[in-house]
Amino acid sequence: MSGRRRAVKVLLVLLAVPLVVVAGLVAWYRWQLDPPGRAGAPVRVRVEPGWGVRDIGTELARRDVIGSDLAFAVYVRTAGDGRFEAGTYELRRKMGVRAAVRRLDAGPVRLYSDLLVPPGLRMSQVVRRIGDLPGFAPGAVTAAIRSGAVSSRFRPAGVSSLEGLLAPDTYRVGEGEREADVLRSMAALFDERAEAAGLGRGPVRGLNAYDVVKVASLVEAEAGVDADRALIAGVIYNRLARGMPLQIDATLIYARGDPRRRDLSDADKAIDSPYNTYRVRGLPPTPIALVSEASLRAALAPAATDALYYVVTDRSGRHAFARTYEEHQRNIADAVRRGVL
Q: Which of 219, 92, 109, 240 is nearest to 164 (CA)?
């Protein structure tokens, strides 16, 4: 073989090497974009605020969504602007760069938690329920309340508590919301419902709006059936008008601080607390529970009754009402015979 022919062969080999390398790189890149086979198991990836293409690619590769953060960076730079919204994305392992970018372009999924807040809960229980949401903490809920950043139009000046001023409901708490946001939603819904019911349009039997909410919270805690709500409210207003102590067991349970214990003793009735309506005349300093719309409407429109007493009379929670103490004692004796008390 002549020297000239040998030189041509060497030159062809040298030219072929880069072509092979380039072909290999192209094949590798295409593989990274669209790997063969089905994607793997679902995986949630969180893109944090301020992350760039490199940060996102690194996280996707770490979570085995893509095979190469370099291929991800090259593709994003050539096929899009690389601006992805912060949030949580539902992706799949080994789905490849192209499919991953399509998901990222579509935006993050909106994750929600359901928060169930039934009527009758006291504020400490609400704080725990909100604090149990993913990423939340009871301490942060309490701090939001104390900060004054959340309020109700029915909370008087000088009152720091939100007790009774949040609406019971089932709330959808979205990703990105914080403790104060949830409390604001609950307070705003309470204000909306209370205004629709007529709260704040004027005094009710001499009581201002906040005191009416207190009455509603007592009704909420005491009533076992809807039919009794307005009657219980009527009894409360009657006793207030006569200067009689309310003697409502629910206020003692609130003062004692343990809502799980329902039994009461003579020692409980001697508790030194402004919530002890056996010792202190008038309404408690704050509401004692979240109120339903039914209880609020009962407090706004109490039944016209002469009754001053009531006692539970059957297993359904219905009460017997009495105008005199003697009649009340007979109702109590009847309830004992029935095994209700």
A: 219
